[in-house]
Amino acid sequence: MFGDFSKMLKMAGEMKKRLGDVQARLAASEYVAQAGGGSVSATVNGKMQLIDLRIGQAVLNDCDAEMLGDMVKAAVAAAQEQASTAAAAAMKEITGGMPLPGLEGLLG
């Protein structure tokens, strides 16, 4: 009985170490997405924070503020979705695919 508990504690310690490693790797990662045919490009990090936004001169000349806003939102949302997908995959890697309630937000 205590052997199983000891094994569980060892596994939890290993998961905690791997979690820190994965958090650092994701935080250093960058995810880029574009909108408006590449006119707008957004880059987010693994924490889903916007770290770069590029808007082409042509789109500034050819569209109104509302359209530009929509393109910016679309590019940022797509980049954040990439980061979220990467975090979910990393969590699956850490837990071996086993769903563990309460751990979902630890990588974002």
Plain-language structure description:
This protein has helices at 2-28, 57-62, 65-95; strands at 30-35, 40-45, 50-55. The chain is an alpha+beta fold. It has one domain (2-96): Nucleoid-associated protein YbaB-like domain (Ybab, Chain: A), CATH 3.30.1310.10. The chain has a 3-stranded antiparallel beta sheet with strand order 1-2-3.
Features:
108 residues, 3 helices, single chain, rod-shaped
Short description:
The chain has 108 residues and is an alpha+beta fold. Helices cover 59% and strands 17% of the residues.
Topology (elements, then pairings):
Blueprint: H1 2-28, E1 30-35, E2 40-45, E3 50-55, H2 57-62, H3 65-95
Order of helices and strands: HEEEHH
Shape: rod-shaped
Number of helices: 3
Number of domains: 1
The level 1 CATH classification is: Alpha Beta
Q: What is the CATH homologous superfamily assignment?
A: Nucleoid-associated protein YbaB-like domain
Largest sheet: 3 strands, antiparallel
Poorly predicted sequence stretches spanning 5 or more consecutive residues = none
Helix content: 55-70%
Which percent range describes the beta-strand content? Answer: 15-25%
